[in-house]
Design a protein that fits this description.
Elements lengths: L2 H30 L5 H23 L9 H25 L19 H7 L11 E2 L2 E2 H25 L8
Antiparallel strand pairs: 1-2
Helix pairs in contact: 1-2, 1-3, 1-5, 2-3, 3-5
Amino acid sequence: MGPQSSRNAAYLIALLLPAALMAAVLVAQYGFGLPPCEMCWWQRYGHIAGIVLALGAWGLRGRGNGSAGDPLVVLAASAIAVSGLIGAFHAGVEYHWWQGFTTCSSSRLGGGDPLAAIMNAPLIRCDVAAWTLFGVSLAGYNFLVSLPGAALIVALLGRARGATPQGHLA
């Protein structure tokens, strides 16, 4: 794979990975009725930041030698990695390996009587996995996908930058 192909792959993964993970959790939430807890939201913020940063990188791609967006791709990979690390912590809380440090409740306030909305809102606990597959929760899958994905993005970008003439960074 040449330098430009590596750069293109890094940019593409930096955009598609967090977008796919966000799509999956939104389907879980709205399609299967699995509302997020507080730590689930924290993980989403990292992916949202990754999407925004990757879109910015795509906007800068054509400038200069094609590497103008590289710093934003690195930041996107960092945001994805942070989301994965939060997922690892959250999975540990779900498996009771350690205790979470929040009350971890979530409420939805709708129209009408705010007190009734608060009193009838479901309590979403962070220490109970809402769904698992093969014993791995959504937070666990976020960790298992996000960290290697972020590492792959950085490796591809490093390959693209290291393959410039005379070993100079692009």
